[in-house]
Amino acid sequence: QGQLVESGGGLVQAGESLSLSCTASVLTYNFNQYAMAWYRQAPGKEREEVACISRTGVNRSYPNSVRGRFTISRVDSKKSVYLQMKNLKPEDTAMYYCAASAFCGEGLTKVQHWGQGTQVTVSS
Question: How far apart are CA 22 and CA 33, in angstroms?
Answer without folding.
Answer: 16
